Amino acid sequence: MNMNDKDDKPAQGMVYIDSLAQNNKNYAYRIRGKNIFGEYGPYSQIVSGMGVKALENAPRIVNFNIQNNEDITLNWEFSTDAEKDITGFELIHSETDEQNSYKTINNKIPASARSITTKSSAPSNYYKIKAVGRNGAKRESFAMLVQPEDNEPPAIPKGFKGKIDSLGVVHLEWLPNTEKDLEGYHIFRGVQKGEEMLRLTPQAISENRFEDKVILENLNSKVYYYVISMDKRKNQSEPSQIIELEKPDKVKPMIPVFTDYKLEENGNITLNWMRSHSDDVEVHQLYRQALDSQDKEWHKIFETKDLKETYTYTDKDVENEKRYRYYLMAIDKSQLNPTTLKKSLYGVIICFLWRLLITLRFGRSY
Fold this sequence. Notes:
The chain is mainly β. The protein has no helices and 27 strands.
């Protein structure tokens, strides 16, 4: 049987606690098993140890001072009568006060010392003084939190750049900051140049990269970003340079609109229209179809890259008693256009008989 077993919970090991008659004396132990028939098994390996007297006194940090150069002086109390039981003190440090996070930064403090000066190494510094007994026993003080004043923001992130892929995923990256107390970064986005930009990151991100998602099928062809850095004291840097990213063009330009036409006395036809108001339009084209001809194809009769609000064009290559249909097309820099000539959504049919009959009609043809 296992003497450490509990009901419905067998023990995974066995524990035995012994009381020593004398400290500072070496004791050796070994064990062996015995079965239900009274037979003994072989002995285990020998283990040995020595009892030591526990330190009765522990140091207590009472205060600290911070100099302008961030030197920190810690002061503690310890019984003078107990100095004979110790070899000295150790200073241990942690940035988080979590278990097993402390590291020794000075292990040569004499037993008579009651203060020590060290350098701040983090925004939050947890210190303990550890008394080291002559027999190896140790006792620690409670932790003291020391936070030097810090109003200096981290450096502005450098090398900020990005791109938008064909699925609308925005890939942003920048060079990492080097501050030890850096908490992370915040990303800001805007859809109009000069507008107030909105923060995308609820919490500071630690990596020097970020992914965003934008809608490609809307009228905003560009999107704007900047990044800031922030330290653990919440000091924020100035914004990085604002980068302007152009979306892959998935939006067809707005359709130009005919505003008027005129049948001239000499038989020519003058057309007036308003430009497409899409920002990325590069070309306006005018097509004509002769409805009474065997050739029903659309023919381009005018093209301009000159962008202005209104246009006027006079078609001189027309015949009397013939009907013509005109069609406008806008093409953006991605070579997208609002529709195709085979499915004209907006056209103008002009019919005339020797300058006497004029009919204007907007319609749909397939």
